[in-house]
Amino acid sequence: MDSDRERRRRERTRERRNSSSHESDSERRRRHGHRATDSQGDVLAQRCAHRASRHQSDSEWDSERTPRKQRRGESTPSTQRSRQSAPLSLDAIAKLDKANAKSAGWRGYDYDEQYLKEVRSKEKKLEKERVKGEKERVREERRKESDAVGEEARRRESRQRARRESKKESDAVGEEARRRESRQRARRESKRRSAEGGDEGAKMTVAQRMEAVNGGKRRSHTSAERDERRKAHEERYTASDIAEKERRRQEKALRDKERKRRVVSGPLAEEGGVGDEDDEYQYMMEKRGGAGAPSEYTEEELAQKKKKKKRLLIAIASVLLLLAIIIPVAVVVSKKNGGDGDGGGGSGGSEAASGPSTPSNSNLDGKDPNSVPEEDKGGWLDPWSWWDTEDFNVTYTNKKVGGLPVIGLNDSWDDDVQANEKVPNLKDDFGYGKNPIRGINVGGWLNVEPFITPSYFEKYTVRDNIIDEWTLTEKLGGPSQAKQTLEKHYSSFITRQTWKDIRDAGFDHVRIPFGYWMVETYDGDQYVPHVSWRYLLRGIEYARQNGLRIKLDLHGAPGSQNGWNHSGRQGVIGWLNGTDGEANGNRWLSIHHKLSVFFAQDRYKNIVTMYGLVNEPRMVDLPASTVLSWSQKAITQIRADGISAIIVFGDGFRGLDKWKDSPLQQNKGLLLDVHQYVIFNLDQIQLNHTDKLNFACKAWTQQSERSMDTSTGFGPTMCGEWSQADTDCTKYINNVNMGTRWEGTLDTGNISTSVLEPYCPLRSSACSCASANADPKDYTDAYKKWLYQFAIAQMESFEKGWGWFYWTWKTERATQWSYEKGREAGIMPGKTWEREFSCPDSPSELEDYGKLGLAESY
């Protein structure tokens, strides 16, 4: 046995020597070191190295996504996989070789087969471990993402809960303040009645007094009602609503971006200011200091904010309570000292908006309310439903002319009145084209404008989006609830004294703007119908008493003729445009028919001497041919109805030169109306003061003269609106809650109409509205002098045509838009014809206001 074994050993040795080039696989492994192969015949060490390299790349990719760096020495799933996938060590291979060799009895084929099984088993085990590790890594990443989303949802819910609690507390404090105010008001009323009633008031029982005190107390809402109201409010602004608003805004911005910017006269630059008004979501994000990023308030910070807000609300409620006590006392003292309330002047912010606390209707005394038929009670034919009956004929009549009631008018009138020595008597022909019109607008009276009476709008937040008469009426509870508020305004804003003051200032004409809802309203309209009609009629009678002629100005057409807030509703143009454009055009013709039949009566022949078709139709966005066709229909109809007055139509922002050879020239008694302002035109607003004055003297004079010449223009031309303002700094002049061109903050939400860089002459951050909006007593002497000369220059230029109407007589605060306030401040002439300045022949003769120290920043 031993000899056989020795013999075999010698034979193998001999074979190796004789066949050195034909070594067996197993011998090569032992001589050169073992390199394991896998089931595909590839070297296992190379594949394991490749896997380790791939896992290392995965680990590096993961580290780039990880918000913090892996700490040194820290084990991660990727590094573990790399270790598990590394090549087998030489010691391990040697042990495996030894075991295989022993079991195979040095038979190479047995050794290779057994070894291959071991390698394959090892490879499967490693692959299973790799797959398991990969799945674990994915599950870990998903768990982290889920935890992050859940945490963000919890923070968001916490913020919402804090806001709801804060609002709940605010509502509670506000409700308590209102109840206190109501009780105080009831007490004051009780005392007043007691004082008026003498012994009768003294006999009131304690129970009766308590009933009077608690009479105005409002029922407090239950917790469930408050939750329901709050939920309904929150559901108004869902994420989908916000996304839809943003999509529409972006689409509109893209459409408008293609529109070429136009430089024309008048307030065309307001175009686009209709905006989407203010989006609640964007507004809240801006308040938080980020563009759409959620605020990262902690619970502790929210609690502190809630405490601060609570203290602030308590302080506000305390101040309101004190004011509720102090103000009535002050009013009583003022009346005892001879105060008479709203006179025709004064700043009158809130006073002008609220009107008198009690109406003047003593002429109802002794009249029988039952004289009004049951079917007319509470309507516009019922004097007992009117807020103010002063100077109205309150005898009931259902007579109508042109479908419009005559109730309130007296049977007789007198036209033998002369406004002043510069103009003819009312009963005589005025001599249009020879005598210049020196007229005034009473804007903001029969249709509300935010910049004229800002007190109606500034009490609301951006969220409320109260931007015009339509939204104001909605906010007040709809037409029926808003009726008393607006009727108080009609009654007090322009009074009998106002017409006397206008006459004393040297005016001879008054332009009265009003909306179509005075005559008719339609389904869905948010306007108070009819009420302003009788105030128009009373105003005309007041004008007659002072010898003032009237221009009727239809300022708001069905659907809106320009989309600006002074048309009644800010937004899209729905007159002669869009789905209901034709219907709205026909409605306007129907309203014209009623008005023209009514004012064709003999009592109006001498006083309503000018009749307007429509104020500022935006013909740069409406088809000119459509507007011209409608205008011709209206003119034909109005003449057929018996109106012999001058008919006035607007230039539509096309420019005066565009009206040469117009088809409307064939009509007799037609007058072209242009509105001139420097503040809505970017080229004009940035002129320095001396250049603005020269522009008013020369450029507008040339325009008037060119337009008056039928070889270069339409012919008869006048300026129906202009102002003294040289900036657009007045609050709400560019729509509610929008900025200014002057300071570069006018963000309309429209790329083509926003102005986001300063446009004062300095074109820098030095442009400021502070001085322009200051009290006139704080104006510098140089600024007062310039404002006066700027006004006179415009008067002279527009009198090269048929004349002018200043915009406007009265505002709550805006001095540079109020002739009444300008006259009081000494920056307007006392009489329209009294002038201490005249435009020179040469611009070099004008004052250099820079040398006079007038800053170009305001």
From TrEMBL:
Species of provenance: Bimuria novae-zelandiae CBS 107.79
Listed EC numbers: 3.2.1.58
Pfam families: Cellulase
Keyword list, A-Z: Cell membrane, Cell wall biogenesis/degradation, Glycoprotein, Glycosidase, Hydrolase, Membrane, Signal-anchor, Transmembrane, Transmembrane helix
Source organism superkingdom: Eukaryota
Protein name: glucan 1,3-beta-glucosidase
GO cellular component: cell surface; extracellular region; plasma membrane
Topology of this chain in the membrane: Single-pass type II membrane protein
GO terms for MF: glucan exo-1,3-beta-glucosidase activity
Ranges of Basic and acidic residues composition bias in the record: 1-28, 55-67, 119-155, 166-179, 192-202, 222-257
Bias (Polar residues): 75-87, 355-364
Record GO biological process: cell wall organization; glucan catabolic process
PANTHER family attached to this UniProt entry: GLUCAN 1,3-BETA-GLUCOSIDASE 2 (PTHR31297:SF34), GLUCAN ENDO-1,6-BETA-GLUCOSIDASE B (PTHR31297)
Function according to Swiss-Prot or TrEMBL: Glucosidase involved in the degradation of cellulosic biomass. Active on lichenan.
Sequence ranges of Basic residues compositional bias: 156-165, 180-191
Gly residues bias locations: 340-349
Catalytic reaction(s) noted: Successive hydrolysis of beta-D-glucose units from the non-reducing ends of (1->3)-beta-D-glucans, releasing alpha-glucose
Domain Glycoside hydrolase family: 490-728
Enzyme class: hydrolase
Family to which the UniProt record says this protein belongs: Belongs to the glycosyl hydrolase 5 (cellulase A) family.
Cellular localisation: Cell membrane
Region (Disordered): 1-90, 119-302, 337-379
Transmembrane segments: 312-333
Main localization, broad class: membrane
